[in-house]
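seq as requested:
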Amino acid sequence: MSKFCPSLMCVDFSKLETELKQLEAAGVDMFHIDVMDGNFVPNFALGIEDIKAVSKLTTLPYDVHLMVSNPTPYIEKFAQLGCQIIYVHVETLIHLHRTLKQIKSTGVKVGLAINPGTSLCVLEDVLDLIDVVLIMSVNPGFAGQPFIFNSIDRIKRLSRMIKERQSNTSIAIDGAINADIIEKLSPYVEYFILGTAGLFINGKPYQQTLNELRHLV
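struct tokens:
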């Protein structure tokens, strides 16, 4: 069953509690929290204090997407914040296997994110350690970018790889996800990360949008 996970970098943080309650009432499944360092991606986004605030205001699960150049020293700290999944980027890791094992040792689900231009081949020898692969369908860093349509083929190829290896790994996708993409990819994707293309649409109630998206999966 596909899950809908709003990206909290798209909410109005001056009304954080109200935004979270409205999203909860609309029936979202999990919150997605982007952490950006201005180095690995050309933008700054949420940090530890923001995650602490979210954890106090919701009972829904949330994940953390570390778009930072050197995530390894911070994994223990983020795991202690109560997140369900920690995503690290394959492009940032020198010792990929070691870092994935480190996440697993914390008891948090292991997430590995991969950029549009990175070959899926890098996943082959570590797939057994990954709970969720996050396919980026835009270049990470900013909301509002166009969807990279090669991502559809990448999702299907990744799904075949998972089945061939009889792995329990799930698939997530993040970047310009709209209703059309959800309808095409719902047989393959468990976690849809929703931003300005799919959920945070000016003037449209979250409840109405989520109801429409639910009918597509």
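The longest strand covers residues 31-36.
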